[in-house]
Every structure is written in C-alpha cells, then in structure tokens.
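Supplementary Methods S3. Input chains for the assembly prediction are listed below.
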Amino acid sequence: MRSCREISALVSQGLDKPLNWRERLEIRLHISMCSSCRNFQLQTQFMRKAARRFGTNLENRFGKKS
Amino acid sequence: MTKNPLSERILAEHRPVLFRYALLQMRDAELADDAVQETLLSAWQSSASFAGKAGLRTWLIGILKHKIADHWRRSTNDVPFSDINQFDAEDTDMDEDAFFMSNGHWNSGPSTWNDPEAAFKQQEFWAVYEVCQNNLPPKMAKVFMLRELVGLEADEICQEIGLSEANYWVVMHRARLRLRECLEIRWFHSQKQEK
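Predicted structure tokens for the full assembly:
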C-alpha cells in the first residue's frame, strides 16, 4: 500500500501527465478510504483553476493587448 | 522562393502563451507585447533555422528570452523582476518532510473546503492567493507559474529550466503542498472562523 505522501505525489503528477491504469486505480482505492488525500486531490484541481484565473486577471490588470 | 514553413497562423497560435511568459517577467503589458511582436517577427524571418528538432514553442520561447534579455540590457534603470534561468541553492530536502510523518501519513491532513470556487468572486481572495504564490521559494514559484499560469507542458519546463523529470515532479508536488497549506490557513480557515 502506498502512503499518503506517495499518493499525493501521484495525484500531483496526474495533473501534469497521464497516469497509467494501475496508478489511477491506486489513487481511487486510497482516496475512497482517506479523506485527507481526497481533499488534496480536490484542492489541487481547485488550485489549477485558481492559477489560470489569476493568470487571466494578471493579463487584464496590465491591460491586455494580445 | 520556397514557401515559409511557419505560417502566420501557426505563429499566432503561440502568441497568448508567449505573452503571459513575457508578462510574468516584465510586469508590463506594453513591454511584453513588444517583446512578443519582435519574437514573432524574428521567428518568421529566421524560420529556416527552425529545424523542428525542438518543439516550435520551445524555439519561440528561446527567441523571446533573448528579446527580454535585450530589453533589460538596454534599460539600465530597471531591474528584472526575475531571471527565470537563475538557479538558486534552495532548501530541497527538508521541505516535503514538514508535511508528512516518517511513516508517510499526513502531519495534519488537508481539511474540507466548502464551495471553494465561491472565493473567485472575492477580491480579497486574490490578494491572499498572490501572497501565497509569492511565498513559494523563487525556483519553485517559477516552475509552478510556468506550468499553471503560462501553460507550458512539463517537458518544456524541464528543458527550459534544465530540470530533470524526476526533479520536476518533486518541485511541483512541494509547490502544491505549500500553496494548499497557505490557502487553507490564510483563507479557508479564517473564513470559517468569521461565520
């Protein structure tokens, strides 16, 4: 069994590259039992959205030209 | 005359990413836009030297970096906001250990955030977000912003910064752990207390 440390690392990787089926399964099994890692997964997805919006806000703040 | 392999349309597709990249470093839309214009122009003129060996975007960013560097050289008063290629000896090992116990369990695990996206509408949230993002160590912040704000792919960032793939995963994991914790403490927990 992978630890929370390893699962959260995999969750993070999953945002930047496709994971294989085994890794995806390990994450699913783990988060079905672990609310901390489930929260981590949801919150990393939230942070991605936030970062993108922040980028857009930044463009607007500086006066979007392109 | 042979046809230019890089059509205007193909170049234009990369404009938004180049612009955000330049903006992050120059913090000025006009300067950033100029740098991007010059980059696309140079790319167009020297398209013969693009052998397709690296990705087109990587090649364009390489040109853009030169344009930005040229700008800083010309303007002696300005100090670059950050030199994305500067690498500093940062704490790399201690960091992640703070979040987990030796058996790999969370030290204090992420708690539940209620309807986090409601925060997007609040000005104060963005101030907190910016503080948290700026609190990341410089190198980590660069990697994180290139990925999430500029929108480069992992392999492009590794090439750009000279980072091994393994290091990239470690850096991004830590960046997300830190940013998450900061948002939880400074925003989601303090929101709870107000209710």
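Chain B has nine helices and no strands. Residues 84 and 142 of chain B are 7 Å apart (CA to CA).
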